[in-house]
């Protein structure tokens, strides 16, 4: 009997030990998985992404107040380059009702890097941050297909997607110019808000990270009411415009649905060329500037201006001729004024140029900047000066030779667009032969605009709207007028700076300027200045030169100011 009791108790103990061992194995496995996830910080869904490596990720210091050592792990605050941060992923994995106000606000701050997210109002941004969930898909993954019901819309946080008309999405990898959407874009919202089917297929071109808003969470958290408020504001804006007074509410609501609101900060580019853009821009808040890229070398006024300033490069004082002259010098001056000496040196230069062209020699030659060798287009002969030779490469323009370094361009403001104005409609009824095809750039001064596609807008206009559009005309200045405006403003700015230096008393001791380390890619004022005094210098500039692309032309150097040879301002002012 005792033997039976011992064997029975041993079997029970064996079973309890086995259960205990199983429990301990589960606990250890749980701890290992937790440490694995904690250490990698990159185990998300089906893919592991390695974190950035640091030499000393953990450091500690002794706290005297707490009498203990405090350890700080920097890896807890590191995210992979460009990827959605791990802490933000943990927030999006929670249910909307479980997210704290502080977490929603931090997520909202993180999403400000997305342009499409910033376009929404602040209350709607907070609500979107509350319901978003995170997704990551690999290359060739189809997000949704054409014809499917729209139950969600997407914000692209990282990566690129393509839109196509076929159902499987394979054509985007064969198309040389597919329709691409990149980081900051949003897609699927129009089909989502109108409860319609998908009008295109969207495919991932690479590994892409999304923030997704589902219809169930959208309606449960009353985001539709906030969207209706924003739509009502746009309806009221269109209703106040004279162009749409004859439109019915139904037609105006169609325009509201077609419009896409966008917000731009000060100095942000809205459109590289709104003349050829496929959209119409309505400025509903703030203002914008219209800029034009002007090629200064194509202007005769600029050509004349350059040569007039190059003749001052010898830096002679303008008051030298006001001093008492000797009788011989006065007689020579009288001869020059009464009987100007004919100068036929330009015929020799023309002959030499033809000879150089036949021999295929370089365009580089010496420019003799004396009064007797200036082009005849500059007017009457001025007082002869001591010659000064500069050597620089030349280019042949329509109006004569021009130093190669002086062939530059500039962005000039030609118009300001205020709140309530429209861009893209002033030539919509003109035939293509009569349209002004010059590229015009639109830059924000802190504006909120509504974009509507031209083809969709033309489907809604009626005869009364066409009659109003026929009277709607904006005439922008010619290239020559823009060039003259730029040079006049440049001369005034240079004179103002020289005058301020003269009037403001110089400090006895130079101001303290802290030494700052040089950083790459920092804007330098010299990079956008053309110095005519240094045309003959062979030293290469150490600052970057900004180049702007032109239509059908090679890139053009962009300048903001031109520093020309000039007299000292003390000699121009009365003594």
UniProtKB/TrEMBL annotation:
GO terms for molecular function: cAMP binding. Keywords: cAMP, cAMP-binding, Cytoplasm, Nucleotide-binding. The keyword Coiled coil does not apply. It is found in: Cytoplasm, Cytosol. One of its GO terms (biological process) is spermatogenesis. Gene3D superfamilies: Jelly Rolls. It holds the Pfam family cNMP_binding. Signal peptide: none annotated. Residues 116-218 form the Cyclic nucleotide-binding domain. One of its GO terms (cellular component) is cytosol. The keyword Nucleotide-binding applies. Its main location: cytoplasm. Transmembrane segments: none annotated. Essential for male fertility. Plays an important role in spermatogenesis and regulates sperm motility by controlling the development of the flagellar bending of sperm. This is Cyclic nucleotide-binding domain-containing protein 2. It comes from Phocoena sinus (Vaquita).
């Amino acid at each position: 009997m005792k033997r039976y009791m011992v064997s029975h108790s041993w079997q029970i103990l064996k079973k309890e030990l086995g259960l205990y061992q199983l429990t301990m194995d589960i606990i250890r496995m749980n701890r290992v998985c937790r440490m694995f996830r904690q250490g990698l910080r990159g185990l998300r869904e089906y893919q592991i992404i390695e974190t950035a490596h640091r030499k000393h990720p953990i450091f500690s210091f002794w706290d005297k107040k707490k009498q203990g050592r405090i350890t700080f792990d920097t890896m807890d605050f590191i995210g992979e380059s460009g990827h959605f941060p791990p802490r933000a992923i943990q927030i999006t994995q929670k249910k909307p009702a479980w997210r704290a106000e502080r977490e929603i606000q931090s997520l909202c701050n993180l999403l400000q890097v997305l342009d499409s997210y910033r376009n929404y109002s602040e209350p709607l941004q907070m609500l979107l941050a509350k319901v978003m969930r995170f997704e990551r898909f690999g290359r060739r993954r189809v997000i949704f297909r054409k014809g499917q019901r729209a139950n969600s819309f997407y914000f692209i946080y990282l990566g690129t997607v393509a839109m196509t008309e076929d159902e499987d999405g394979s054509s985007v990898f064969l198309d040389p110019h597919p329709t691409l959407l990149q980081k900051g874009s949003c897609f699927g919202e129009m089909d989502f808000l109108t409860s319609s089917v998908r009008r295109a297929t969207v495919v991932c071109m690479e590994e892409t990270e999304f923030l997704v808003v589902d219809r169930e969470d959208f309606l449960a958290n009353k985001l539709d009411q906030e969207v209706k408020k924003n739509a009502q504001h746009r309806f009221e804006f269109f209703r106040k415009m004279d162009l749409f007074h004859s439109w019915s509410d139904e037609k105006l609501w169609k325009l509201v649905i077609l419009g896409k609101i966008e917000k731009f900060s000060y100095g942000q580019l809205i459109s590289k060329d709104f003349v050829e853009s496929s959209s119409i821009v309505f400025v509903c808040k703030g203002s914008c500037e219209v800029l034009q890229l002007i090629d200064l070398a194509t202007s005769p006024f600029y050509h004349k201006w350059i040569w007039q300033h190059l003749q001052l490069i010898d830096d002679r004082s303008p008051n030298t001729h006001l001093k008492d002259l000797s009788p011989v010098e006065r007689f020579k001056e009288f001869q020059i004024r009464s009987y100007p000496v004919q100068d036929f040196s330009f015929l020799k230069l023309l002959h030499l140029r033809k000879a150089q062209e036949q021999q295929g020699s370089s365009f580089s030659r010496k420019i003799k900047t004396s009064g007797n060798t200036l082009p005849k287009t500059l007017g009457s002969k001025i007082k002869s000066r001591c010659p000064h030779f500069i050597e620089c490469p030349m280019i042949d323009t329509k109006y004569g030779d021009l130093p190669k370094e002086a062939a530059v361009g500039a962005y000039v403001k030609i118009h300001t667009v205020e709140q309530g104005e429209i861009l893209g409609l002033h030539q919509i009824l003109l035939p293509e032969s009569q349209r002004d095809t010059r590229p015009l750039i639109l830059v924000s001064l802190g504006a909120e605009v509504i974009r509507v596609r031209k083809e969709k807008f033309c489907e809604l206009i009626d005869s009364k709207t066409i009659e109003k559009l026929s009277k709607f005309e904006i005439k922008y200045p010619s290239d020559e007028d823009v060039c003259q405006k730029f040079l006049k403003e440049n001369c005034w700015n240079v004179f103002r700076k020289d005058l301020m230096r003269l009037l403001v008393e110089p400090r006895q001791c130079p101001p303290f300027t802290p030494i700052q380390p040089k950083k790459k890619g920092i804007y330098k004022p010299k990079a956008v200045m053309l110095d005519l005094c240094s045309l003959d210098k062979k030293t290469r500039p150490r600052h970057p030169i900004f180049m702007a692309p032109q239509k059908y032309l090679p890139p053009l150097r962009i300048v903001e100011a031109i520093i020309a040879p000039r007299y000292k301002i003390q000699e121009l002012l009365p003594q």
